[in-house]
Amino acid sequence: MSARYAVIGNPVAHSKSPWIHAQFARATGQDMVYEAIEAPLDGFARTVGEFRAAGGRGANVTLPFKEQAYIYCRATSERANAARAVNTLVLDRVETWGDNTDGVGLVRDLEANLGVALADKRVLVLGAGGAAQGVLQPLQAAGVGRLVVVNRTVGRARELAARFPGVEACSYPDIKARAFDLVLNATSAGLRGELPPLPAEAASTLFAPGALAYDMVYGRDTPFLAYARSAGARTSDGAGMLVEQAAESFLIWRGVRPNTRAVLAALRAH
Ligand code: ATR
Fold first, then answer.
1. Which regions in the chain score pLDDT beneath 70?
2. Residue 100, ligand 1, Cβ within 6 A
3. How would you label 108-136 residue by residue, b for 16+ Cβ within 10 Å and e otherwise?
4. 119 in helix, strand or coil?
5. What is the pLDDT of residue 71?
6. If you take atom 28 of ligand 1, which residue's CA is the nearest one?
7. DSSP assigned state of 191
């Protein structure tokens, strides 16, 4: 019987993960199936238990369950601990093990796909929610020179920065005259067609020459990306991060690293 994997979320019907993992399985010759499972909002643990009992070997976890998955796991990786969230469950061990491949997926997309050498770069992260929390440690591990978190609710940025020595917190008005090599939108503003409140004066200074503006949202042109383009920056959505985090999960489960290039190109062409 094929090994069973799944993505668990709510809603989950829109998830591209089953398609991505089917491409990886075909390309690497792995005998596996990967389905999408919608867990009731109050039934994450039950859903995982049922999937495990039915022979599930591993699962990805998506919104809104990543924090619950972190609490659910008996053991977790260091990167999951830093993110306080789990997106990858390993179910075929005595104790459920949790990892988080989101941050490393972002770093791989930036470095391998987009050609950004992160060492010593000045990086600004917009937002202080779960998405931001998941990428700070991997960015630090990649050797960025300066890491600043800006958030609408500045207290949240301060709380987050306090957990990561060397990370700086600030408010939107504070970023007026500062320049960055990479500006990452980790807010949910784009999902509602909103632009984070970047000061108008910042447009001409925020993006250093050659800077990249990256929106972790995938598959849509957000107001942030339009703002960055009009300020002359290079832009990318989060499609590569999605494919790279999937590849890292696949590697954990199957011991094989799939090639991501063709899958990313096909996803973009969709
Ligand atoms: P996630 O886990 O996806 O990060 P979250 O924890 O709800 O979701 O956090 C959403 C983030 O987007 C927060 O940083 C939020 O800012 P606040 O903490 O001030 O609410 C940010 N956000 C959402 N809409 C925004 C907007 N229009 N402008 C700026 N920031 C926004």
1. none
2. no
3. bbbeebeebebeebbbbbbbbebbbbbbb
4. coil
5. 97
6. 196
7. G
